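Re: the multi-chain job from yesterday

Posting the exact lines I submitted so nobody has to dig through the queue logs.
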Amino acid sequence: MKLKNRGALLGSRMLDLLTIAVVAAFLFPYLFMVSSAFKTRLETFAYPPVWLFTPTFEHFQNIFENMNILFYMKNSTIIAVCSTLLTILIAIPATYSFARYRFRYKEGIAYGFLFLQMVPGISIVFALFFIARALDLFDTHLFLIVVYLLWNIPYAIWMMRGFVEGIPVELEESAMVDGASRFKAFRLITLPLMAGGVAATAILIFIGVWNEFSLAFFLTSTNARTMPTTIAFFMTHSGIKWGPMFATATIGTLPVVIFALLVRRYFISALTFGAVKG
Amino acid sequence: MGSLPPSPGPFPQNEGRGDKSASLKDSRGARNAPPSLWGRGLGWGSAPQWLVPALLILPAFAVVFAIAAYSAFSLFQLSTVDLTFGEPFRLAEGVGLQNYQWLLTNEHSTFGATVRITIHYLLGTLIPELLIGFAIALLLNRKMRGNSLFTALLIIPVVLMPSMVGLIGRLYFSYDGLINFFFESVTGIRHNWYGKDLALVAVILVDIWEWTPFFILILLAGLQTLPVEPFEAARVDGASRWQSFAHLTLPMMLPLILTTLILRFMDVLRLFDVIFVMFSGGPGTATTTLPLYVYRTTLVQRDVGRGSAASVMLIIIIVALTVILIKLRERIKFEA
Amino acid sequence: MKVRLVFIILAVALVFSSATAMGHDPIEDWAAGIKDQYGGTTITVAVASHPSVEAFKQMIPRFEELTGISVVLDEMEEGQLGQRMLLEVSAESASYDAMMTAIEWSPLVASSGYATPLEPWIESDITPDWFNYEDILQAYRDMFLWEDGMHYGIPYAGETVFMFYREDLFEEHGIDVPTTYDEVLAAAQYFSENVDGVDGISYRARLGWEFTYMWSIFLAPFGGMMVDPATGEVALDSPGTVTSLEYIRDLWQYGPVGVESFSFPEAWDAFMLGRAAIMIEASAAAPEVENPDKSLVAGMTGYSPLPAGPAGAFSGVWGWSFAMMDDSDAKEATWAFIAYLTSEGLQDEYLANGGIVSRASALGDPDLQAENPYYQATLDTLKQAAALGELGLSVVLPTPKWSQISEIMGIEGARAFIGEISVEEAIASMQAQVSEVVSG
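And the result, structure tokens for all chains:
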């Protein structure tokens, strides 16, 4: 009996090691990339790769001083935060409606949302460009914020709907029996319970908007350009500027990574609901 | 989660089996079928029943359909004209369905080859991502110190900007790059990832690296909420680990797996940034997937008509395959 | 109080001294006049990520200070800039005052009326004496000449293709610098077979415009052509075209592994890291090759004009210019900006900042020639480009449809290059598709 336990313990240790190895394998390219942000150009190309080197900070200095990367981060942040908040605000009532009411064509409309979310951005960039010019909204934060809603709202509805459906309807009912209005029951009971799902949805949407390139490129110019379009600064006529590119990639991931670390438990448990039911 | 009173669990086995026909009609949340109380929820005695839900959906509907309807209409219109990108749009000439005909039948069209490559790419990314993702999710779904930290760190590849992922892939898969360094250390051979035989494999490997974490995160979350009781019962009955995995975990996870596949599958058919930056669709046409083909035809070769027609067909393919996946998902859900 | 007083005195002194300086410096004289009339204007300029733009960025603050004109740059990757331009032409409205245009786009911006002809501006009073338009190499100026006899761009970054070779390796192995393409093939074979870690020849062959760019300089030496100058018909199926495509495919086996996916940065890096003995590439690579921070072969590289094929030795010209948008409502200020940055008077500063040489005065300057070993090769190669022009041929067809043609050639050619289809099939396919584009 004891022996068997020891064997199980050993097996479990092995699996722990395997887990660590797998996670390390996934993180390795990223860590190597971060380390490359501190390498000189020739070190970047060295074969076999250089593992030990004197770090240089010139690339970070370069992107902050010459490439004005903070300006693009600011635009990205404004657009991603506003578009995400607006999405959630508009999607919550719709989600609630899909999850809690029964009406004709419900599934048809829900799938309609899903299918519209599939339209590739590049396919409709002309149409959007003309709308922007006609409304004099070209190169504004507002236009991008609104345009992203087209993809975000259906995504949010599908993610959050499953979550709301996972919350027992009896909880709301009992509140209403106690005399609460339907809205009050929603606000006091359902909304707090679905907060985790909302947060998870919001993070995924935020990442999507933060990384979107095609529309951001065609619909902005000097005023509202976002982070992903700064790739142009690294793919130049005199070659690829690896150092500054690695530095920007490092800086660009940090906010989301730190946020993910802070809310990791919340994020993961919440994600479950949306995905399972969505 | 733990604070919830008797958790219904997000899994379909909780849905009443006897209620199958009702569930089929209204696949989602039959369990939550509104009791009579809901009809007068807001106290609008005489308002028609559909009014409240309709009003709640209206803002989302208005925003999404207003943008999408115009865009979709304009896309279809462009697919029926002969127009060069870079000429004023008013010069467009209607040609009916000739663009579709050209793509599907012309001897110089590479559309067919593109569809084949896209299928390889789809299968090459989705299946390993699912299998590896599921395996890692199972590994992380054990009592182990640090697994929530690991899970949060695994989000990093998803957060990286796709165009930068493409550039990084281009560097790491070069002949003197990081990937070949590992191959040479282990097998003594370096491969030409830039060549026609391996370029598609290279972009698939990058996609696997970038998106497997997406499967890990969602599937792990799913595993964590599996009800405990059936597993304990199975253990009492003397079921082996493998048996409880095959007969309990897998069936319970299937709907979730299909949902995740649908989400990912739509992305794979929409995104091309990584491939574009890595190989531009080359060498030859080795990595030209459908969305990349649409991009090149419309914006580089400047044939708006054919590009839009390819785009419409891409959307039709996405919708058709998604419908199949959804149907499959619903069937599995009720058979489970 | 005292401190403030000192500051006031200093400030007065500064103003006074700069005022006296104005009397002597022609650039400041000119700028003062511009400031009177157009100061306070803001102009927006679309530019590509290009070393010339890096140089301009260091010059613009002084321009803004001297003229009171504010400049906003919108910097994009080259391909994206081209797409932005196409989108604006399609929409028939310009959101920029000026745009950096490549030779490939010039016919389009000229024929569509998106850009404005520059002759009236070159001759206007705004143009300073120290601009000296004629000093820009004619080969570069004429890249932006359209059928109506007007120029639609002021070039400042001319480019040609010549041969880079490792002087040390050629010397060590006693091989003469190739003067024919047969010798190039032989030398490439020799080095790839006999020197460890060194491949024969590096060049770009990624599908699309890059394949066309590289292939286009091999056409004429083998007697090939895109359009027959005598008839004006598409002639991609001429025998020489087939031979030239087969030739670059033969070179492939002596290139670095992965050439079939090389974009120009990979091609340059292979040479700069000492992994290739020869490189046939854009002259824009030369400053990089000579930069010891980026290159292991700085100071070890020789430059020569392109070798001869059976039909002669030819190269081509490419380049970048500033075009002014017809829709701009600040044309005077925009022209002042263009004339200032691309002038002979500012040339030294431009080159010192890493700008690309485009003027006869600089290329012919003995001091600069000694500093930049590739200046002589540039001049010699431009003669090869002129020879191409005398045949009525060019590496970029002067038509608004060029990018379509280039994409078709670049895809079909790249497919034949890796053996996805045969050379004959590729040629037949591009002949058919290009004919359709040209006639449509």
